[in-house]
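Support case: user asked for a sample of complex input and structure output to validate their parser. Sending the pair below.
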Amino acid sequence: MNVVPMNATVARAALSRLFEPSDTVGLGLVSLVGPVDGLRIVRRDIDAGGEMRQRLRELLGMTGGRRDPLDEGLARWAPRLRDLAPERDLTTLARLGGRLLIPECEEWPEALNDLQEAAPLCLWVRGAHEIPRVNRMVSIVGSRDSTSYGSSVTTDLASGLSARGFSVVSGGAYGIDAQAHRAALASAPGDESPPTVGVLACGVDRYYPAGNEELLRTIVDRGLLISEVPPGSSPTRWRFLQRNRLIAALSAVTVVVEARWRSGALNTAHHAAGLGRPVGAVPGSVYSANSAGCHRLLRDGTAVCVADAADVAELAGPLGSEPAGDQAREADVRSREQDGLTIPDLLLFDALPVRSSTTVDKLSVVAGLATRDVITGLARLELAGLAMRTGEGWRRGKS
Amino acid sequence: MNVVPMNATVARAALSRLFEPSDTVGLGLVSLVGPVDGLRIVRRDIDAGGEMRQRLRELLGMTGGRRDPLDEGLARWAPRLRDLAPERDLTTLARLGGRLLIPECEEWPEALNDLQEAAPLCLWVRGAHEIPRVNRMVSIVGSRDSTSYGSSVTTDLASGLSARGFSVVSGGAYGIDAQAHRAALASAPGDESPPTVGVLACGVDRYYPAGNEELLRTIVDRGLLISEVPPGSSPTRWRFLQRNRLIAALSAVTVVVEARWRSGALNTAHHAAGLGRPVGAVPGSVYSANSAGCHRLLRDGTAVCVADAADVAELAGPLGSEPAGDQAREADVRSREQDGLTIPDLLLFDALPVRSSTTVDKLSVVAGLATRDVITGLARLELAGLAMRTGEGWRRGKS
């Protein structure tokens, strides 16, 4: 699948172990000199040179000050150089049936480039599927301590979105994440189905959290497991926060099902909003602490209210667009046939008695309409089945 | 209380029986010639004249066509002329302890003028209080068939808003409306308390719906009952729809607690939004048909998500502004003392073991930080109680 020179792959694999995610100095260096020379500079095989250092300072928007960002970076990366063994990491990945994606290769998700200077160096990937295009990916995220309400909504959303051809992206965590993956797996049994995508804060060889090991193994078998940190890496707070930007960037829409007032899911939502991607938040009881974060997103305008898969698909754009409408809405709409009436006809309809009959003169007083308008209006209402003639005059229709 | 000539009051009382609410032709006529001459024209005591008819056409934005709006109006109003008895209506109102407010008098709510050409002719009012200023009024509206969730939220909102000095405005209907009035009455026992305001689609002498008679009588005693239609008038669909514009116009904020996908409460919300007044919608379960209308308002951007009285007060502006914060939020915020850390310190904190100890060198590999940054970072974390020195090195602090 990779037709690019091996050294770019190896270099990015190496750098992804040296740099923490979103290390702006490291990523800036790579953007200036490429991964191979970047690695040689980090290893001090070659010197960066004064001109390159100056360009890096400019890239990082550092106009003054005496500190040199590259020297700080070199000091930060040095302690990890000793154990660096990218070929070993790539062998480990290959043994797991995985592959390394780098920006130079065809399968690289274009959508990640929207992260600009924070685009990941590479993606460590397990799973047979190709990564779907961004307009086919929707992330569903939320609290680890989800409620039964949150689980139900997650199941409905993930099933409905899978059925509409969307990949469900999430973080493989307990709670909403796990439920989203599970429902996507349950509703997409075939190989042709959109794969669910787990984006991890640790290496793709680690099953974290331990209680989700079986789920994560199933995702490897039938979906995709992705990380920007190499095999063996442990999940840290920083990596969780940065992982969230990948979830947001990979997906056309990010939906938060349940989140507390402070929650990692809000971080994902803000990443998505920062990328200009639509964010959906599922409303819930105002008495549920697990919905407070969703309501916060709705209130501050970060998210749009979504109640079902149709709402989410609509946010995702053309692919999933279809007329929204659950049963409650349709029933509600059907029951109001008088809604299409003009104002005078509505006044007249209101004035018509349900049980007894009345005259045109009385109708004109009650409705506040001229006699001739009552007569023409009654004809229209009669046609619509809303008025009927009786021996004594007029009454409501029986429809 | 009224220092204006009696004939303006009598004329407006009469016209409010002849014209249905928001009769644009009738209201246009009054805006051109005033209520007294308007009534004389309607009664055909005087002729409107060609120039006035032309000005009326222009006011109504009718540039062409052969139909004359005034002639149509005269035909519409004629059937009701026979039984016109404004002095009798005013006597009825006075006997009930009520008063008629007209735009010419001091107590007239300025806020109604925001309705422009749809401002009511007059207000038939019962209750001892003056109508509060718009920035002290919040309307709470919603489904007639409210759920227990909707009732609870309504109670909390109305109580919280009353306690903050707001008048709770609603429509006196079953469900959310009644609950809003009840909670406002319960939390505002004193004469100094903000009165709850019921805005009716029928005359203020009628207790509609019948099941709310006792509540409506209590509102007369301790709050305000308002209508733009004269005593004896029955509620019709048109009058309900138009009544909604009065609720919206009288209030600084309109809150929809529960509403189906199609609901009169949405009509009130759209009136408020059209007036540029903030609209709040209370979120709820996506499985509740009674919240579907609220979610619709949130989704289409008509309403802002409100979860408690503090959120609503904030929308109402300066008077009620105060830092939002329920217990769940505060507890959630307190629990994250590491949130304020810089990125390097967060990386370092993550790298610190909880149970065992580690060395500065190991920390620099795990955290991906230069040795000197680990040393200075540990000093900061130690000060914050997040790191502690042990015999063997460093570990997480016990705080």
